[in-house]
Amino acid sequence: MLAGQGVVMGSLFGVAATAAAQGEPFEAALKGVFVLPKADVAVSLGAAVYWLEAVGAVTTEETGNRLIGAATNGADAEAPSVAVRLNGFAG
Distance between CA atoms of 71 and 46, rounded to whole angstroms? Predict the structure, then answer.
């Protein structure tokens, strides 16, 4: 895993603060605002955002995905990323 990468850890979602091999311990931030990769969807300011684990990206699609926070800026569908305020858990 790379530093800055989003990661689900059981019921938690965070952004890796350190790099680590698969299965190795690492530090992660659970709260704060982070720019994360985004699926090909438009995101509105303040929208609830979910983690699309299969591709490692933020989406607005609730079904089958985990709530991770809210968008702190808007982004059109073509934008590669969006700023997200993490809520500290993966709902």
Answer: 5
